[in-house]
Amino acid sequence: MSFSSVLITGANRGIGLELVKQLANSADPPTHIFATSRQPDKAKVLNELASKSSNIHVIECDVKNEESIYHLVSTVSSQVGCNGLNLIINNAAIAYKHTLATVNVQDLIENYHVNAVAPLMITKQLLPLLKTSAENGHKTLVVNISSTLGSISKYRKICVGDYQYTYRASKAALNMITRCLWVELKPIKISVVSICPGWVQTDMGSPDADLTPEQSVTGLLKTIENLSEEDGGKFFTFDGKPNPW
């Protein structure tokens, strides 16, 4: 892979865990794979992977906690040094099911915090390391794992379901954050995109979903690898097709 350092949030299960697996087992793995988990002591499979690969650094991080993010930045900085950080994959997410009858303020705020605010704050705090990477001439990228459920233009074509007020709204917000970040960071050669991983057979998805984690992540990594500077500020499907905002 063209990235020598990668940070993945929410790496203890599902898509995040599969990203760590495939990156570590690739023909040209990154030198540093930073894998965050809110409770790393319970991330059995992730810790097993790390025990077999010195490239994997498991880091405790609660993306809702500023002090935890500061600790994350310090840990990453101590490893990458003057090389900077090449790639952030903001993957950590939650999804509460609510209709109008059941939706409440607390769950709405938590969905927005984890799914939209946290990716922005993590990117903000890691910006010095991203800038160093870009200044060194490396491809430097922020990937926000979004969802087609956050696409406003596709809303009428997708079943409303129970996620409309919490998950959908937070992912729509994340897409706007992607666009805003790209506008600000493009002049310093840092690209930002949103990518939908598809409907995946994970705890957040469903056993009946279209894709296995392996299929989704294989497509995600291929899409990320093939992104060019012209692709910045856009929204893609896991297999690299344009996705409407």
Account of the protein in words:
By secondary structure, this protein is of the alpha/beta class. It has a single domain, classed as Rossmann fold (3-Layer(aba) Sandwich). It is built from 6 helices and 7 strands; from the N terminus they run βαβαβαβαβαβαβ. Strands 3-2-1-4-5-6-7 form a 7-stranded parallel beta sheet, sandwiched between helices. α4 runs parallel beside α5.
Q: Which helices and strands appear, and what pairs or packs with what?
A:
Layout: E1 5-8, H1 14-24, E2 32-37, H2 44-52, E3 56-60, H3 66-80, E4 87-90, H4 105-135, E5 141-145, H5 164-185, E6 191-196, H6 213-226, E7 235-237
Parallel strand pairs: 1-2, 1-4, 2-3, 4-5, 5-6, 6-7
Keywords: NADP, Oxidoreductase
GO molecular function: oxidoreductase activity
Family: Belongs to the short-chain dehydrogenases/reductases (SDR) family.
Task: Classify the secondary structure makeup into a structural class.
Answer: alpha/beta
Determine Rg (CA atoms, Å).
17 Å
Total number of domains: 1
CATH class: Alpha Beta
**Beginning-to-end CA distance, first to last residue:** 28 Å
Describe the main β-sheet briefly: 7 strands, parallel
Helix content: 40-55%
Q: Tell me the CATH architecture.
A: 3-Layer(aba) Sandwich
DSSP summary, beta strand count: 7
**Number of distinct helices:** 6
CATH superfamily: NAD(P)-binding Rossmann-like Domain
Choose one word for the global shape: globular
- Which ranges are low-confidence, i.e. pLDDT below 50, for 5 or more consecutive residues? none
Spatial order of strands in the largest sheet: 3-2-1-4-5-6-7
Order of SSEs: EHEHEHEHEHEHE
